[in-house]
Design a protein that fits this description.
This protein is mainly alpha-helical. The protein has 2 domains: 171 residues, Cytochrome Bc1 Complex, Chain D, domain 2 (Orthogonal Bundle), CATH 1.10.760.10; 142 residues, Cytochrome c-like domain (Cytochrome Bc1 Complex, Chain D, domain 2). Helix content is 36%, strand content 1%. Strands 1-2 form a two-stranded antiparallel sheet. It is globular and about 65 Å long. The chain starts with a helix and ends in an 8-residue tail after the last helix.
Length: 351
C-alpha cells in the first residue's frame, strides 16, 4: 500500500511538473523598450527586394515582432517559440541540432535555416515554396511537427492576454488582433535582421578592422575560383535551387515538393555562407557537422545523382577539384564571414 502511494505521488508530481513547464507564463519582457530600427542597405549590398512600403518598419512593429518571436504561447502547448529553433548564437539557426524538434519532441525533416538578410530573398524555405517574408512564420506556427497550432486559436489566445492588444494598437493602430498583423509584426522583426559587418565586409569597404592575413587572401582567391558560381558575393548565395550530390537517389524531394517536376527532385536552395562558422550542422538534413566535412564532400564525396548540378560534374569528374590545402584555405576565408556584431546584437535577442 505504501509503495502504491509513493508511485501515485510521483506520477502526480510528474504531471504537475509537465503542466507547470508547458503552461507557465511566457518568459518575455512585454515592457521592453522600443528600438529605432531601419532597413539600412549596406554600402556593398544590392537593393533589397522586400516591400517595406507595404509593411514599414517601426519601433512599435519591431517590438511586437520581437516579443512574438520569443513567446512560447504561440505554440499549441506553449512549450516552444520561434526562438527555440532559431538562436542568435547560431546566427538564428538551430545550434548543434541537425533536425529541429517541435512540440512533444517531434523531430522535423529538415535543418532549421539561419535567419538574416531575409529582405534580399525572393523565396523562402529549403524548397522555396513561399515567396513572401510575411508568410514564412505561418509554416512554423501551423506545422504539426513544429508549433502545431491553429491560426484562429493563436489569435484568440493573444486577444485574451491583456499585454497584447495595446502592443497591436501601438504597432498597427488597432487592438483587434488579426493573423495579417501578427505576421506583419514578425516580418518586421525578421526583415531588420541584417548581417553585413563581418571582417569580410570591412575588407570590401576598406573599413578599419578589415585587413586579411595572407592565408585569408589565398582562401578568398580559391573561394572565388572554386565556389562563387553558387555562393555569389556579397550575399554569398545566388538564390538558386541545386542538387549537390548528397545522395545517389534523393530521399527528400526538395524543390519537387513545390514544382512537381522530376528534374527538381533533390534540389534545395543555395544557403548563404555568411556566419557559416557558427551555424553548424550543414546541408538541408544537417548531416554534416563541420566545415571540414562540407569541403571534403565537395572534393571527393559528391554522388552521381540524376539531377546533380552541372557545376559538380565537369571535366569528367564529380565534385570540385580541391586539395587538402585549398580546403583549409577556404575554411580560413569563410571564418571572415562571421558577423559578431549581428550575433551579439541585443535588439534581436529575447527581450
Amino acid at each position: 500500500m505504501k509503495k502504491k502511494l509513493i508511485i501515485i505521488i510521483v506520477l502526480i508530481n510528474v504531471i504537475i511538473g509537465y503542466f507547470a513547464f508547458n503552461l507557465k507564463p511566457a518568459e518575455v519582457n512585454f515592457d521592453a523598450k522600443e528600438e529605432d530600427v531601419q532597413l539600412k542597405v549596406p554600402a556593398n549590398f544590392p537593393k533589397p527586394v522586400y516591400d517595406v512600403k507595404g509593411n514599414k518598419l517601426t519601433p512599435a512593429g519591431f517590438k511586437l515582432g520581437r516579443i512574438l518571436f520569443y513567446d512560447r504561447q504561440l505554440s499549441l502547448d506553449q512549450s516552444i517559440s520561434c526562438g527555440s529553433c532559431h538562436q542568435s548564437k547560431a546566427a538564428f539557426a538551430n545550434f548543434a541540432r541537425p533536425l529541429s524538434r517541435g512540440i512533444k519532441g517531434c523531430t522535423g525533416a529538415r535543418n532549421a535555416p539561419a535567419l538574416f538578410n531575409l529582405a534580399w530573398q525572393r523565396e523562402f524555405m529549403w524548397d522555396g515554396r513561399l515567396d513572401q517574408l510575411d508568410l514564412t512564420s505561418h509554416n512554423a506556427l501551423t506545422n504539426p511537427c513544429e508549433m502545431a497550432n491553429d491560426m484562429n486559436q493563436i489569435i484568440a489566445r493573444l486577444q485574451d492576454l491583456p499585454m497584447y492588444p495595446p502592443l497591436f494598437r501601438k504597432a498597427f493602430g488597432d487592438p483587434t488582433i488579426t493573423p495579417k498583423n501578427m505576421m506583419r509584426g514578425l516580418a518586421q522583426f525578421m526583415a531588420a535582421m541584417v548581417s553585413a559587418n563581418s571582417r569580410y565586409d570591412k575588407h570590401i569597404r576598406n573599413d578599419p578592422g578589415g585587413t586579411f592575413s595572407k592565408e585569408e587572401e589565398l582562401g578568398y582567391a580559391v573561394f572565388k575560383l572554386k565556389c562563387s558560381s553558387c555562393h555569389r558575393e556579397p550575399l554569398f548565395t545566388d538564390h538558386s535551387f541545386r542538387n549537390n550530390g548528397l545522395e545517389i537517389w534523393s530521399a527528400d524531394k526538395g524543390r519537387d515538393s513545390l514544382t512537381h517536376r522530376k528534374g527538381d527532385i533533390g534540389k534545395f536552395k543555395i544557403p548563404s555562407l555568411r556566419n557559416v562558422e557558427v551555424s553548424a550542422p550543414y546541408m538541408h538534413d544537417g548531416h554534416l557537422e563541420t566545415l571540414e566535412q562540407v569541403l571534403a564532400h565537395y572534393a571527393h564525396g559528391v554522388k552521381a545523382n540524376p539531377n546533380l548540378d552541372p557545376e559538380l560534374k565537369k571535366n569528367g569528374r564529380l565534385g570540385i577539384l580541391l586539395n587538402s590545402r585549398e580546403q583549409q584555405q577556404i575554411i580560413v576565408f569563410l571564418r571572415t564571414l562571421t558577423d559578431k556584431d549581428f550575433i551579439s546584437d541585443k535588439r534581436f535577442q529575447n527581450p
